[in-house]
Amino acid sequence: MAGAPAGGVAAEHKRQFVYGLHAIAAVLDRAPERLLELWALDTREDGRLSELRARAEVAGIRVQSAAPTALTKFVGDVVHQGVVAVVRPLKAWDEHELLDALSQIARPLLLVLDGVTDPHNLGACLRTADAAGVHALVIPKDRSATVDGVVRKVAAGAAEFVPVVSVTNLARVLESLKERGVWVVGTDGAADQTLYAADLNRPLALVLGAEGSGMRRLTRKHCDFVVRIPMAGQVESLNVSVAAGVALFEAQRQRGA
């Protein structure tokens, strides 16, 4: 019946959803085993949605029709583009697993976000991190957006593949990274050294703060050094996801990626 996913309404709070054509297609491309069910709007028939349904069926994923009210009930009043997927829960990474994993990576590249509370910005940073080959994204448990449906849609599938490590004490984790040979480099518009003059060809954790407030004082204290992105125009700062892209791809350029 078009209305509730298998298992009934009572089970919905235990389920995780991905919505939007691009985000679901990305998961279907890279990790179809993560998809459990696909719910498509029964009043929409177009090429992109029909293709997605067909690919899901070929992959053995249960595809069902749903009324508009049912999709809204699943994910809220968001732009879901007529399609919602039930997915396996994301793995919850902690700082101990992150630090243990570093021993298996020759030159880690990490992105650390200190105080990014807008889910759209977090999703965009995840998408950028995936494109730049980041091994993990680190966020504090407090004063940060969490990986919800909005983040997963904006990330266009990247949230399913880039480990997100939520930590209780960000300063302590930065010190632990340094003890393991990772250089912690912060970004600050007032820094003396520019991004392009810095040596980023090393095990690296790039730290960005929120727009406006930037990194917290304690976070900056635990950076090995800070850099700035040279600005030629009149604006004082870039959106955090844009700044992340500039910094990460400069690091990858220097690393010979």
Describe the structure.
Helix content is 34%, strand content 19%. With 257 residues, the chain is of the alpha/beta class. The chain has two domains: 9-87, Ribosomal protein L30/S12 (60s Ribosomal Protein L30, Chain: A, 2-Layer Sandwich), CATH 3.30.1330; 95-254, SPOUT methyltransferase, trefoil knot domain (Alpha/beta knot). The strands form two sheets. The chain has a six-stranded parallel sheet with strand order 7-6-5-9-8-10, sandwiched between helices. Strands 1-4-2-3 form a four-stranded mixed sheet. α1 (21-30) runs parallel beside α2 and α5 (119-131) packs parallel to α9. Mean pLDDT is 87; it is low at 1-13.
Strand order of the largest sheet: 7-6-5-9-8-10
CATH topology of the largest domain, anyone? Alpha/beta knot
Contiguous low-pLDDT stretches (5 residues minimum) are 1-13
Instruction: Determine the structural class based on helices, strands and strand pairing.
Output: alpha/beta
Assembly form of the protein? single chain
Beta strand count = 10
Q: State the order of secondary-structure elements, H for helix, E for strand.
A: EHEHEHEHEHEHEHEEHEH
Secondary structure: helix percent: 25-40%
Q: Main beta sheet, described?
A: 6 strands, parallel
How many helices in DSSP terms? 9
